[in-house]
Specification:
The complex is a heterodimer of chains A (251) and B (462). With 251 residues, chain A is α/β, with parallel strands linked by helices. Chain A has a single domain, classed as P-loop containing nucleotide triphosphate hydrolases (Rossmann fold, 3-Layer(aba) Sandwich), CATH 3.40.50.300. Helices cover 35% and strands 25% of the residues of chain A. Chain A has a nine-stranded mixed sheet with strand order 6-4-7-8-3-9-10-11-12, sandwiched between helices. In chain A, strands 1-2 form a two-stranded antiparallel sheet. By secondary structure, chain B is α+β, with helices and mostly antiparallel strands. Chain B is built from 13 helices and 14 strands. Chain B has helices spanning 8-12, 21-27, 38-52, 81-94, 107-116, 129-137, 143-147, 151-158, 160-169, 199-220, 252-264, 302-317, 333-336; strands spanning 59-62, 66-69, 186-196, 222-233, 238-249, 276-288, 322-327, 337-341, 365-377, 384-389, 392-405, 425-432, 437-443, 454-460. Classes of the chains: A alpha/beta (251), B alpha+beta (462).
């Protein structure tokens, strides 16, 4: 009896080793305690994270959030942004001075435009195989049926092998199954007004929808601190409002 | 309608180019004619020139029906000059073309000999009608007649250009031809005894050529940045494949990976047809590349790895699809940031600095061209209150502005004159009721520049 339980324990240990070839996953944090505590330290680096815009108009918010996360995950290594021609036409092109204004270095960013989803995914597999890259952002156009469970699983495996952080950026919420470690929904949030009622720093309403590690869903409003490259919670008065009241009723 | 060109049989019947078609028909009732198509003739000449690239990289067109090849230093590949010419004549003969050729020390001399025979007449000078007649009347009908005359009276009577041309015809002055393509810095070539139809074998040959090129480049202390592989098909068709690298290289394995990428990305795949009979690898652009010292510690492979990745992606997708961002010194927002191919970076310009504590003043995404919107302002020169973009109405709850950006009138023609300097833009950073931040501008100053200025959405903030 004790023999079999010992061998069972041995097998379990072996399975664990097989599943995690390099010990625990390498994490990158948000720099904001409210999120990092809930996530148990941060998000896995060699993994796939999916970020969706709450509505099409929130595309700029979600792409900003993705770039901020990519900057935190990549340690001064290059960030590759992979998009499709149609996405570029619909949402505008990335603007260097705007990146500087978010505290991101435009020289670190390499833009790749593919003609369709399939060639974008092929390029993504190539990029994820290169460990000199810090992070890759994949922006499929529309529903992107080519990016199904199998395709995302392939991206996850490539990311795990190379340790490159991979983000899928969607301009709408999706119900498609994917192998991503986490799925987030991002929307713009009203910024803390500056004197003269001027729009303030970038504020985002971020919601964790799914986490493979079992972290329960949560949502909060965050601001990006471009000097420190960290997320922070906005002034207390607005942060405690429940999400439903943060938006006016006019929809 | 007139005759432009005739075949040998028609010439033997006494027809000559320039004759009216009606006259020719009167003499030879069953004359077969085709419409003259100069464009097709020119295309054929270009195709022949492509095929002649196998003999030398220095090929120049001599329209409408001539080619000039500079075979200096190329004849040994074929054994001798005569063997090269024989191969060329046989190749064109198989294609049904009859050629007249001549070899000479200078291009002009070779051209005169080929076009006008061994004792060229003064027609070889390509002078205008008037001067040709004058020469004839003076009893000077051949180049040989002119060669023995003193030059200065000739120059005084017929112009210095005629004397210069004469010197070139006689081989006294040598000017180089202007080739169709820039000759490569280095090229290696291999010919097959029999046409090869297997693409794999052709690629293996290309790899052997890359090996050869590496040795040559290493001796020169250089690496290639731009490569072209020419596959010569036995029927005269030539397929060229181009690859570029971000860093100078001479590594055959890397080159072959890029060439394979290129072949995979071809819209119409390689068709060996009846087989390839020669392969050439041109290294079009070279740059200094010293020997690399391999460190004892684990090398920092990151940058090289990224450069390799960029090269692979550029080869597959095209270098206009793999880009980096650059900054330019201008106030016009859409011109201040541009993209350039990631494997061919220009000199970097510093990015503008930010002031601590300021919110982002420039959008993350920019529309170029700006998107027209319908905006309502309380007063015509005031900030927008609400605007409609992509069929949605946005209510402005916060705004900052205007940030006034004048047009660059000094770059315009007569931009200093009133009304010709272009319109001023008034930019507003606005936030709508749901927290989305936009960058809008009013095009033209109300009253002085535009009666009812248009509004545009130029960018989106995060």
């Amino acid at each position: 009896m004790s023999d079999s339980s010992a061998s069972l324990a041995r097998l379990k240990r072996r399975l664990e080793r097989l599943e995690r070839p390099r010990g625990g996953p390498c994490l990158f944090s948000f720099g904001c305690d409210a999120v990092d505590v809930r996530l148990g330290g941060g998000l896995a680096r060699g993994a796939l994270h999916e970020l969706c815009a709450a509505e099409v108009d929130d595309h700029s918010a979600v792409s900003g959030f993705t770039l901020m996360l990519a900057a935190r995950a990549s340690d001064a290594k290059p960030i590759l942004w992979l998009r499709e021609d149609k996405g570029q036409r619909q949402h505008g092109r990335l603007y260097g001075s705007g990146l500087v204004d978010l505290g991101l270095n435009p020289d670190r960013i390499i833009l790749v435009t593919a003609s369709d989803t399939l060639s974008a995914l092929r390029a993504a597999a190539d990029i994820l195989g290169c460990s000199g890259i810090g992070a890759v952002v994949i922006e499929p156009w529309g529903d992107a049926r080519a990016l199904d469970l199998t395709a995302s699983r392939r991206l996850v495996l490539a990311a795990e092998t190379s340790g490159v952080a991979a983000f899928i950026l969607r301009d709408r919420t999706t119900s498609f199954a994917s192998a991503a470690a986490t799925r987030w929904t991002v929307a713009s949030a009203s910024s803390a007004a500056l004197p003269g009622n001027a729009p303030g720093h970038a504020a985002l309403s971020v919601e964790l929808v799914r986490h493979r590690g079992g972290v329960p869903p949560f949502g909060l409003v965050m601001e990006w601190d471009r000097e420190e490259h960290v997320f922070r919670e906005p002034a207390l008065s607005r942060a405690v409002l429940p999400p439903a009241q943060r938006r006016p009723l006019a929809a | 309608m007139r005759l432009v060109a005739l075949d040998a049989h028609a010439l033997s019947l006494g027809l000559v180019p320039g004759m009216a078609l009606a006259d020719a028909r009167a003499r030879v009732p069953d004359l077969a004619t085709n419409d003259h198509n100069p464009a097709a003739d020119a295309a054929l000449l270009v195709r022949m020139a492509d095929d002649c690239d196998r003999y030398t990289p220095m090929v120049a067109l001599d329209p409408p029906d001539g080619l000039i090849l500079d075979i200096t230093g190329c004849a040994h590949i074929w054994g001798s000059e005569a063997a090269l010419v024989a191969d060329l004549a046989a190749r064109l003969g198989r294609a049904g073309l009859r050629v007249q050729h001549a070899l000479a020390e200078t291009p002009d001399r070779a051209r005169a000999l080929a076009r006008h025979g061994n004792a060229p007449s003064i027609l070889a000078l390509d002078l205008d009608e008037e001067r040709t007649t004058a020469l004839r009347r003076a009893g000077l009908t051949t180049i040989a007649d002119l060669a023995v005359r003193p030059r200065s009276p000739l120059a005084a009577r017929f112009g210095t250009d005629m004397v210069a041309k004469l010197a070139r015809l006689l081989g006294e002055e040598d000017i180089r031809i202007t080739p169709r393509r820039v000759p490569p810095a280095l090229f290696v070539m291999r010919r097959f005894a029999e046409p090869i139809a297997a693409t794999d074998y052709v690629l293996a040959t290309l790899e052997a050529l890359a090996d050869e090129a590496r040795d040559a480049l290493r001796e020169r202390g250089e690496g290639g940045r731009r490569f072209a592989a020419s596959l010569f098909r036995s029927d005269g068709d030539v397929r060229q494949l181009f690859v570029e690298t971000g860093q100078p290289t001479r590594d055959p394995a890397l080159l072959m990976r890029l060439f394979r990428e290129r072949i995979e990305a071809l819209a119409d795949p390689l068709d060996p047809g009846f087989g390839y009979d020669a392969v050439r690898l041109d290294i079009a652009v070279t740059e200094p590349l010293g020997p690399v010292q391999t460190g004892l510690a684990t090398p920092v492979a990151g940058d090289a790895e990224v450069a390799g990745l960029v090269d692979r992606l550029s080869t597959r997708l095209g270098s206009n699809r793999v880009q980096r961002l650059g900054s330019r010194d201008t106030h016009i927002p859409e011109q201040a940031c541009f993209t350039f191919p990631a494997n061919d970076p220009p000199d970097p310009m510093p990015w503008p600095k930010t002031t601590a504590g300021e919110p982002p003043l420039r959008p993350l995404h920019l529309f170029d061209p700006p998107q027209p919107i319908l905006a309502i302002a309380e007063v015509p020169d005031g900030p927008p209150r609400r605007f409609q973009w992509r069929r949605r109405t946005h209510l402005v709850v916060r705004y900052e502005g205007p940030e006034r950006i004048a047009s660059e009138w000094w770059r315009r023609r007569e931009g200093h004159e009133a009304g010709k300097g272009g319109m001023t833009r008034d930019y507003f950073r606005v936030e709508d009721e749901r927290g989305r931040r936009f960058w809008l501008f009013r095009h033209g100053l109300y009253g002085s520049e535009a009666r009812s200025p248009d509004w545009y959405l130029h960018g989106l903030f995060a």
